[in-house]
Amino acid sequence: MADIAIVIVSYNVRHFLAPCLQSIQQADRRGLHVETWVVDNASVDGSVALVQSDFPEVKLIISEKNLGFSAANNLAIREIRAKYVLLLNPDTLLSEDTLRVAWEFMESHPQAGALGVRMIDGAGRFLPESKRQLPGLWNSFCKLFFLSDLFPSSRWFSGYNLGYLPEHTATRVEVLCGAFMFMRSETLDQVGLLDEAFFMYGEDIDLSYRIGQGGFEIWYVPETTIIHYKGESTKKSSLNYVRTFYGAMHIYVKKHYGQGKGIHLVRFVHLAVAIRAAISTVNRLVNRWLAPVLDALVIWCCLQLVSTLWAKYYFADEAYFQTSAHKFLLGLCTAVWLFFLWLGGNYSEKVSPWRQLTFVSAGLITILLIYALFPEAWRSSRAVILLGALAVWVTASVLHWVRQRMQGTPSQNKAERVVALVAHQSHAAKLTSILSQSGVRTENIYTISPERTQADTWYANHLANLPQMIQTLGINEVVYSSESMTLRTIMDSMTQLGAGLVFRIGGDDSLGIIGSPSKGQQGEWYGLEMRYKLDSPQQRRLKRVTDVLLSFLVLLFLPIVWIWTGLRWRCLPNAVSVIVGKATWVGYGGRSQEYQFLPALPPCIVKVPFDGRLCRIETGYARMANMAYAKDYTPARDVRVFWQNIHRLSNKAV
After folding, report:
1. What is the largest CA-CA distance in the chain?
2. What pLDDT, on the 0 to 100 scale, is given for residue 585?
3. Quick one: which H or E segment has residue 35?
4. Which residues contact 318 (CB under 8 A, 6 or more apart)?
5. 449, containing H or E segment
6. At what angle do helices 382-407 and 263-313 cross, to 10 degrees?
7. Torsions phi, psi of 565, nearest 5?
């Protein structure tokens, strides 16, 4: 029988799972028998192979489908024979003393049924959900309508996350965070396992409620700290997250407050949840479409201004361009330039003005080609188009610069990052290679000694002087080597340095560096792996445009394609599926193991390894062909494969 059994549910978080498991390996056990269980929820990112090859001691349960958080945890818990069970998120890192502190606290508090610990995010900031209260009418109102965010330390407004209680004092609480739930097995035997009605979110509140109802104490223990890279297992900004999270709240309230005096809480939470879900959905849509819509309005106004000025000073007639044909031309120009700005990454990444000029010029060429096809009566003035291109470039550059400044994130362009690398000399070379490969200039990397005494002039400075270095040298990112120092030391340093920096941890056998600027942003991973062009947002946009254009060609020449594919009509639904993004014309082929580690693509109609007339059957051929496609992708390759395989366009997308 084990002393502690740790259960981790993994779903496509391979690069975070490895450091998490390594932090467990490095934990202070001192005679404790610790088992680690990983339940894989049908990941397609190579998580299973990673655990099997690098962590053979881990007990692995492989699910053929995504069971959700509760059901997956229960799979392992039913198999476990241990005194204590720890439910742990894969996007966490334990301190070396975490297991020891949790064990000793539970042993000295026999009435405690469960405990949670102090958690910090990827920027070193305390996570208020480390200690929580059960949802009630008032604290739910404050949480759902952001009052707890506005007054985080108020006893009146911050009851949901108990913000008025000291961060560094152990105290009894009512709710644990699902990222770290340390529980007695006998407690679970008495109150039951996680409720599988909760797919994800809400199950921790439900289980905590039942633990309290069972007569057990729940404690917040801040003597140890863990890092929780919030939101790595799910995309917090996605509509699916909104539906899942608020759906879980409905289930919880209906289950525990559906009768009697709780009916008012039920009605209120249902209303509040609906409002918050609507706000989240609208906010997501605004964040996605606000910038393009504003750019479209500004571009349209600029073109109108150019037209007016040209008509006034060149033709001496302000009404010269007041025709429906000219207005149509301005609308067409706006749409084309907006499309090419999107294609150049103007709305998803930081781009330089020269890159914007390239895509504005591509839009100008496209507009002039279309303009040449207009009948004479529809043509107005090429000078307006040329001057408009200059105006579009200037305004697009200014608007993009303003958006970047308004976002105010500490994470700068990789080429502009100034990094403090805290590592021993023997470990620094590997981390420097990872950073350099990720676009950080080596002259912007300062290597810091982990010890507080600097005994080697090879180092720029030592850890004790890091705060002064950050202020003097403009350092905006700190990378710690987990091989050179303990995770507890790293967490203490992160907390001391405070906000405004990006923190990352790396240096172990995973050959990667992980980090997250804040609890509201997704984590990032740098690694010594092959770079694939299909990882580039721009190349993925080009592939999407290529797919849509090829689909319209299929629809335009449908009778010919129908004959060419052997009188099979599947080419029609295939074209529709590609247009809506449910499929792609050209993609990976073979078994899933031969491409699941590559940049994800929708199901494909034509498989790259088998696009020729002769089928290659050598061992590893499909894997190498898929890797070559992802590494050296070009739209021209898709067009060529599409043309050579027109007879296969009625294949089923898989």
Report:
1. 93
2. 95
3. strand 34-41
4. 308, 311, 312
5. strand 445-449
6. 140
7. -90, 15
Task: For the chain, give every domain's residue range.
Answer: 2-132+173-233, 235-408, 414-527, 533-648
Write the CB contacts of 649 (distance below 8 Å, at least 6 apart in sequence).
554, 561, 564, 565, 571, 574, 585, 605, 606, 642
The one-character DSSP state at 167 is T
Decide: 446 and 470 in contact? Cβ < 8 Å.
no
Residue 564 has which token pair? Answer: 């060419």
177: left (phi over 0), alpha (psi -120 to 50) or beta: beta
> Closest Cα partner for 306 from 196, 389, 404, 407?
389
pLDDT in tens, 325-380: 888 888 999 999 999 998 888 887 677 888 889 889 999 999 998 888 888 777 77
Global pTM? 0.64
Give the closest residue to 483 by CA, choosing from 22, 116, 111, 131.
22
Burial tier of 264 (Cβ tally within 10 Å: 0-12, 13-18, 19+):
exposed
Contact 308, 393 (CB under 8 A): no
Q: Do the beta carbons of residue 141 and residue 126 sit within 8 Å? A: no
SS3 542: helix
Angle among Cα 497, 234, 209 to the nearest 5 degrees reads 85
Sheet containing strand 502-506, strands side by side: 461-462, 445-449, 419-422, 477-481, 502-506, 512-515, 524-527
Residue listed under structure tokens 């209680």: 165
Inform me whether the pLDDT recorded for 509 exceeds 60.
no
Q: Indicate the helix (H) or strand (E) that contains 221.
A: strand 217-228
Amino acid at 524: E
Q: Give the integer Cα–Cα distance in Å for 303 and 392.
A: 8
Cα–Cα distance measured from residue 283 to residue 277, given in angstroms and rounded to the nearest whole number: 10
User: Is 178 within 8 Å of 69 (Cβ atoms)?
Assistant: yes
pLDDT at 3 over 70: yes
Query: What CATH class does 414-527 carry?
Result: alpha beta
Q: If you average pLDDT over each of 74-83, 125-134, 395-404, 533-542, which comes out highest?
A: 74-83
The confidence score (pLDDT) of residue 639 equals: 93
Topology (CATH level 3) of domain 2-132+173-233: Spore Coat Polysaccharide Biosynthesis Protein SpsA; Chain A (3.90.550)
The pLDDT of residue 415 is 42
Query: Of all helices (H) and strands (E), which one includes residue 288?
Result: helix 263-313
**Among 464, 453, 521, 515, residue whose Cα is nearest residue 492:** 464
In angstroms, how far is CA 347 from the centroid of its own chain?
A: 17
Question: By CB neighbour count within 10 A (0-12 exposed, 13-18 middle, 19+ buried), where does 269 fall?
Answer: buried
Q: What is the DSSP string of 87-142?
A: EE-TTEEE-TTHHHHHHHHHHH-TTEEEEEEEEE-TTS-B-GGGSB----HHHHHH
529-542 residue pLDDT tens: 456 788 888 888 89
Q: Helix, strand, or coil here: 486?
A: coil
Q: Could you tell me which residues come within 8 angstroms of residue 558 by beta carbon, excluding any fewer than 6 positions away?
A: 571, 572
